[in-house]
UniProtKB/TrEMBL annotation, chain A:
UniProt GO MF annotations: metal ion binding; transferase activity
Cited PANTHER family: ASPARTATE CARBAMOYLTRANSFERASE REGULATORY CHAIN
Organism: Halovivax cerinus
Quaternary assembly: Contains catalytic and regulatory chains.
Cofactor: Zn(2+)
InterPro entries: Asp_carbamoyltransf_reg_N, Asp_carbamoylTrfase_reg, Asp_carbamoyltrfase_reg_C, Asp_carbatrfase_reg_C_sf, Asp_carbatrfase_reg_N_sf
Protein role: Involved in allosteric regulation of aspartate carbamoyltransferase.
Gene it is expressed from: pyrI
Aspartate carbamoyltransferase regulatory subunit N-terminal domain sequence ranges: 7-99
Family statement drawn from the similarity comment of this UniProt entry: Belongs to the PyrI family.
Name of the featured protein: Aspartate carbamoyltransferase regulatory chain
Keyword flag Cell division: no
UniProtKB/TrEMBL annotation, chain B:
Domain Aspartate/ornithine carbamoyltransferase Asp/Orn-binding: 150-298
Name assigned to this protein: Aspartate carbamoyltransferase
Enzyme Commission identifier(s): 2.1.3.2
The encoding gene: pyrB
Keywords, ordered alphabetically: Pyrimidine biosynthesis, Transferase
Length: 153, 305
């Protein structure tokens, strides 16, 4: 059974498998990591894959690239249940869960049109990460829902 | 607080607040109580939004301390239209001034400015965000009239967009206060502010009507409800009358009640209230100068350094 599901997304030789992403969030995972294939890396995505833990889940496999801890932590904003598998020569050599960072910079844009970061200023967006959302350090707006929509693309 | 910035009232501890208020009281009773000779001090006034009162209050304060100002005048009409960024503007003014007072229509503007300059930045209002120096003069006035502990305060009007309200609420959470917020539902405190006040363990209650709480208040802080916040005139008229303070309204209040307002008012406090013992708003406005003198004196540090 499980082998059958695995076949939906091909194995990778070297790189990162991001597993247990909430169904529907795979493209946001790529966006938040800034991965669009333009660097030539192979990217495969499984969407709505049956899962024991999440009922259905998305999987993202990035060939030839090992994610840094910082990148992994940022994922927690949209994929808090995600597990990260680092693959070398077809073997999973590291496996870990994401952890929420204290803050994120240059990743999300503030939805408050009255915020100074929405003006034409040389400023990098910065959000504190709360238990249940994020908060702009400039205007102090709290965002709990719709974080994927704030990802700077 | 020395050489720091004053960006929000959230950053002010009880000790910070008391240091400013005590110094303001000393300056008010004796003009020579200021600690430094400020004859070499120049304050940069950057007002990207018109605010004659706040600007004049700062200007008077630094001049009474012996210093002077550089004033960009109507910034709105000049550099902003040419597209100069705030980050550039403050870096230029930093070359002329020992401190910068910034009024700006966007939230977080003062914080951004503070990241680009080494001189102290004082937030004189950033959009719907903060207005910490207004808060200090409000607190000074409250302390003179009712004290800051064991205080029951009603804050009424446009609580959603009212930066003076947000700043005041944060600062009051340092003291033993019961805060009652009175507004139409559509102009309630932003949830962010309520979240923060709860985090601080503040006693906060929200109401749509003043009547049930008026008798227990020591202070009633009134702010204006603006017509343009309402989609139609009828909705506004319905609400406006309900949140207008008259001498009849105050019959139910304690004799000791202070009525405050950051001014300018339009019709939310009837002129009849002016001659009652409740009216504290003009005194409040006058307190702006000693409080800002105290703040500048403490914040700008030693001119010899
Ligand atoms: Zn913001």
């Amino acid at each position: 059974m499980s082998e059958n599901h695995e076949l939906r997304v091909s194995k990778i030789k070297n790189g990162t498998v991001i597993d247990h992403v909430h169904a529907g969030q795979a493209l946001n995972v790529l966006a938040i990591l800034g991965i669009d294939g333009s660097d030539g890396e192979g990217v495969s995505i499984g969407m709505n894959v049956p899962s024991d833990r999440l009922a259905t889940k998305d999987i993202v496999k990035v060939e030839g690239r090992e994610l840094s801890q910082e990148e992994v932590d940022v994922l927690s904003l949209i994929a808090p249940e995600a597990t990260i598998n680092i693959v070398r020569e077809y073997d999973v050599v590291e496996k870990h869960r994401v952890e929420r960072p204290d803050s994120v910079e240059g990743i999300l844009s503030c939805p408050n049109a009255g915020c100074i970061t929405a003006a034409d200023e040389p400023v990098t967006s910065r959000f504190d990460v709360l238990d249940d959302g994020v908060r702009c350090v400039y205007c102090e707006r709290i965002v709990r829902d719709g974080i994927p929509a704030l990802i700077e693309r | 607080m020395r050489h720091g910035n004053i960006l929000t009232s959230k950053q002010l501890s009880r000790a910070d607040i008391e240091a400013v208020l005590d110094h303001a009281a000393a300056i008010e009773s004796d003009g020579s109580a200021a600690v430094e000779d400020r004859s070499e001090t120049v304050l940069g006034l950057l007002f990207f939004e018109p605010s004659t009162r706040t600007k004049m209050s700062f200007e008077t304060a630094i001049k009474r301390l012996g210093g002077d100002v550089v004033d960009m005048g109507s910034v709105d009409a000049s550099s902003v239209k040419k597209g100069e960024s705030l980050a550039d503007t403050v870096r230029v003014i930093e070359g002329y001034a020992d401190g910068i007072v910034l009024r700006h229509p966007r939230q977080g503007a003062a914080k951004l400015a503070s990241e680009y300059v080494d001189v102290p930045v004082i937030n004189a209002g950033d959009g719907a965000g903060h207005h910490p120096t207004q808060t200090l003069l409000d607190l000074y006035t409250i302390r003179e009239n009712a004290g800051l502990d064991d205080l029951t305060i009603g804050i009424m009007g446009d609580l959603k967009y009212g930066r003076t309200v947000h700043s005041l609420a944060y600062a009051l959470s340092n003291f033993d206060t019961r805060q009652h917020f009175v507004s139409p539902e559509s102009l309630q405190l932003p949830r962010e502010v309520v979240f923060d006040l709860h985090q601080e363990g503040a006693s906060v209650k929200e109401h749509e009507s003043l009547d049930p709480i008026l008798p227990e208040l020591d202070v009633l802080y009134v702010t204006r409800i603006q017509r343009e916040r309402f989609p139609d005139e009828n909705e506004y008229q319905k609400v406006a009358g309900e949140y207008c303070i008259t001498t009849e309204t105050l019959e139910a209040a304690s004799d000791e009640l202070s009525v405050m307002h950051p001014l300018p008012r339009v019709d939310e406090i009837a002129p009849g209230v002016d001659t009652t013992d409740h009216a504290t708003y003009f005194e409040q406005a006058h307190n702006g100068v000693p409080v800002r003198m105290a703040l500048l004196d403490l914040l700008l540090g030693d001119s010899d350094e």
